[in-house]
From TrEMBL, chains A, B:
GO MF, one example: proline-tRNA ligase activity
Main EC class the enzyme belongs to: ligase
Lineage: Bacteria, Bacillati, Bacillota, Bacilli, Bacillales
Protein name, entry field: Proline--tRNA ligase
Entry's free-text remark on domains: Consists of three domains: the N-terminal catalytic domain, the editing domain and the C-terminal anticodon-binding domain.
Gene behind this protein: proS_2
Length: 584, 584
């Protein structure tokens, strides 16, 4: 294509609202423009990349035997009432009424529509397994859209749904999509990790992986092992502190029973006297305590009071650890978990926020195993301005409910091999999910098995953020000059620069190479603009097409410059051989 | 692809809600399924056709030098306030608020978004002309969605917008799109007519054509000449009755002046006595009058009272003609035109509805030229239960305001060549429109011309109903057995039928041909289902793939059946030559 007339409005400066480098570069290089917060127009270059990513997804879906369909964005609310999600989805779900006051939603995802479709159209095990996908525009009214295409309100997704007649079938469908996803992200040039993720309310039989493109801007934390291929997101990752070796834990568990018995006798402070009161005026946070006492944060134990569904509970983690609420919810099989408010904390502990501790508490106490593995700890005294020192877990408070309730931390041991865990930031570009019978049960999607009995279909769902991939790729592939598109998804493969449109020899040679490249099937962008060379080269670096061929002063001698954007290696070669070099 | 696992849920019976044959067949052949009224899911076969039509559109757009972009469906209401359309668009526009109570609409069209884009990104004549298009999902909350994809609420459209620096440039952009549209519809196999249409409020400098696929189910009337290539939609078409030859009209116009003079003297009934009162009790319609008097409807003149913006007017047309309100609005440069209510009619004429006539009326009277060309007419007497006979236009009522105010009728003379006009029903599959400066003015889209002066961009817009084309094609291409897809947009080119999946010879040969066809680049659907032959053939006819190759009993002898769906011609040929016949 010819750049003179192509709409590529490059910008010298990044618009002030763009924080992420990918957002800045996609705006500056003229790939996208914002229409409203989280809502974008794809300009010609942006759309070309979007379509290349889509094409890769389609190829891999077809290879995996997955069928493409297209479902509507407008979905009747009835379906969402059937699944029960209408009430629980929250404000991200865009709802509106049609002219006849019928309720609709704009699909953020299509489990309901597809389950209703398959329920109506498939009724025999002979038609299973069946996996369907679409590449379609999704709507989510994000509270805080940001980072350009990374967190938008209208975005392009590939969503697939599998229907199986058995759990083994689901495992196989899931694995097939997992493998296809690996190929897709690799082909898009992404440095990604598939990580174990939390399956949420789906429960034990379900499994889920997220595909994380590693990038500092990422909103998720990827926990991975330096020695084996274990990787999980922070919600899911298990971490073991050095102290918490199994034998020690067993020992502690013995103590736990004793502690539990003590507690049951209502003598919460059975070990009283073994520990000391510590005057800690106005020190409510671990940070303040560590500062005022000169002790490490890991010497302390944090006691957090939560409202868990309808009951209050306490969760104990080491001072340098963070509670993982997902793990706590799973342990208690709870739906909702929120920190207790100040009034409740005061009522439960008898002290204002900041001085809670396990001793004497009459609510269930969940003790993280890192706490259980500590010899002595400092905890809140349940009394304003006081903490307790030399408290012994198991002796002074019960370890009856003990488990993994914290986020892993860097340096923890891998749960698989004991190697060291490291953290990275990641952008979630895809997720595969074993849904099981969650939707088939709600929407009554059944089939007749080979014995003629009705069974619920067993489902999986699989998503890829097509538009998000653009941003993730740019986050990973750029330099100070602009974008470095991977070949497979670059908007063009060759950027052919005609340095001076007034030099007839340059024009002639550039036009001839343009023609030859097109004939050879190479996607080429010809910069035929009447601009200064500096502008042309700056724009070219910004746009990031993999190969640049410059037709300049040496055109008369039949020489051109060949340059790879990524390496910046530049050679002068004969115009006669340059097309072969590009295609060879 | 293999049919065994492909989701093609064919139906023996058409669902009762489907009136149009295309709707019935697309449902029965498993191309689409309804999610809600006017909202559909495209199943694998339907999506394949949709993507083929899209590919043709993209090819022709690229050939026309048009650039593809992708705009969002969610549009901020501010833009629609700027253009003034937010208030006037009516209930078809879907409106909703985001979580922060900001108003949005779901785009039924994108003039606002694109004008705002180009206003921001293009500011010099050197970047013009510029034509941009997208293939994107549109939303219109139709009052009465029907006929499947013909009138839906969510549908796929190609919409393009041109920006020029001069009116001549617009003419050229418009012509280029017009030509591309002709190629697109022809390639899709449509029997279509480009027709002159009404440009509505855009005014004189604008022009517009609709592209009509001829089909009985069509909601529009196409008026075309049997002798020349004149064609227009009913709103726009000019028709001349045989009587209304120019000389006669001139003569009448002379009379008109006289009549006008008479009227000006306030002697509305100057010719009184020349005409007779006719007692017509309870005959309020032309039909009733014709029946009770035994005279042809064309002997009568209908007098319709309208409220036109803020004034009442009367419009006279022959009894067998219909008022064309668009033409009346243009003649009076009016925004709104509605029939007067009964009370207003009684106040103006002194008689209840059904007895209005021109004589004695004190409001402006628009006389259709067919009326002016009549020697004597029968009109309402402005008195209950009476009409007047032997009334002479020009003598008994003024012809001062005379023109073309009626719909053309079949048999009228072509305004170009005088040939006979015929009527067809048409489905609007595309429209090209000279917008002029309507949006650039409202949204302040200006450029600097070569002298450095600011000028408004001159715009055109161009739409194609991609999903609607599917229905239009099926309306035109079907027989009693099912669909007859044109080659260019067929979901597959060859339907390869393995008659018995239990016959190893058939299976072997069919698999071999399947492989060969795929290697040859032919899109082939292999019916490898374990179904009776009758079911396979019925489904095949229903789906409508152009060529069918049947591998049956003669497989052992190396023979197969080759059959064209459209002609039903069937031959037995050697399996060795069938691939060459398909590709040759």
């Amino acid at each position: 294509m010819r750049q003179e007339k192509l709409l590529i409005p490059t910008l010298r400066e990044a618009p002030s609202e763009a924080e992420a480098i990918s957002h800045q570069l996609l705006l500056r290089a003229g790939f996208i423009r914002q229409v409203a917060a989280g809502i974008y127009t794809y300009l010609p270059l942006g759309l070309r990349v979007l379509r290349k990513v889509s094409a890769i997804v389609r190829e891999e879906m077809e290879l995996a035997g997955v069928q493409e369909i297209l479902m509507p964005a407008m979905q009747p609310a009835e379906l969402w009432h059937e699944s029960g999600r209408y009430e629980v989805y929250g404000q991200e779900l865009i709802r509106f009424q049609d002219r006849h006051q019928r309720e609709f939603v704009l699909g953020p995802t299509h489990e309901e529509v597809i389950t209703a479709l398959v329920r109506n159209e498939v009724n025999s095990y002979r038609k299973l397994p069946l996996t369907l996908y679409q590449i379609q525009t999704k709507f989510r009214d994000e509270r805080r859209p940001r980072f350009g295409l990374l967190r938008g309100r209208e975005f392009l997704m590939k969503d697939a749904y599998s229907f199986d007649s058995s759990w083994e079938g689901l495992d196989s469908s899931y694995r097939s999509m997992y493998d296809a996803y690996c190929r897709i992200f690799a082909r898009c040039g992404l440095n990604y990790r598939p990580v174990e993720a939390d399956a949420g309310a789906i429960g034990g039989e379900g499994g889920t992986h997220e595909f994380m493109a590693l990038a500092d801007i990422g909103e998720d934390t990827v926990v991975s092992c330096m020695s084996c291929d274990y990787a999980a997101n922070l919600e899911k990752a298990e971490g073991h502190s050095g102290e918490a070796d199994p034998s020690l834990l067993l020992q502690v568990e013995g103590n736990a029973e004793a502690g539990s018995a003590v507690n049951k006798q209502g003598q919460a402070a059975a070990g009283a006297g073994h520990y000391d009161r510590l005057h800690t005026p106005d020190t409510r946070t671990i940070q303040e305590l560590a500062q005022s006492t000169g002790m490490a944060a890991s010497s302390f134990v944090k006691t957090l009071i939560y409202l868990c569904d309808e009951n209050y509970i306490a969760v104990l983690v080491r001072g340098d650890h963070e509670v993982n609420e997902i793990k706590v919810k799973h342990a208690l099989d709870a739906e909702n978990l929120v920190l207790a408010d100040a009034a409740a904390i005061e009522a439960i502990t008898g002290a204002p926020t900041g001085f809670a501790g396990p001793i004497g508490l009459s609510i269930p106490i969940l003790v993280d195993r890192s706490v259980a593995a500590m010899k002595t700890v400092i905890v809140g005294a349940n009394e304003q301005d006081y903490h307790l020192r030399n408290v012994q877990p198991g002796r002074d408070f019960s370890l009856r409910i003990m488990g993994d309730y914290r986020n892993a931390t860097e340096g923890d041991c891998c749960p698989r091999c004991g190697g060291g865990l490291v953290f990275h930031r990641g952008i979630e570009v895809g997720q595969v999910f074993k849904l099981g019978t969650k939707y088939s049960e709600k929407l009554d999607a059944k089939f007749l098995d080979s014995t003629g009995r009705e069974q619920l279909m067993i489902m999986g769902c699989y998503g890829i953020g097509i538009s998000r991939i653009l941003s993730a790729v740019v986050e990973q592939h750029h330099d100070s000059g602009g974008i470095l598109w991977p070949n497979a998804i670059a908007p063009f493969y060759v950027h052919l620069i005609m340095v001076s449109v007034k030099d007839t020899e340059q024009v002639r040679l550039a036009e001839e190479l343009y023609r030859q490249l097109k004939v050879a099937g190479v996607e080429v962008l010809l910069d035929d603009r009447d601009e200064r060379p500096g502008v042309k080269f700056k724009d070219s670096d910004l746009i990031g097409i993999p190969i640049r061929i410059t037709v300049g002063r040496q055109a008369a001698e039949g020489l051109v410059e060949y340059r790879e954007r990524r390496t910046a290696e530049q050679i002068v070669i004969s115009a006669d051989t340059v097309v072969a070099k590009v295609t060879g």
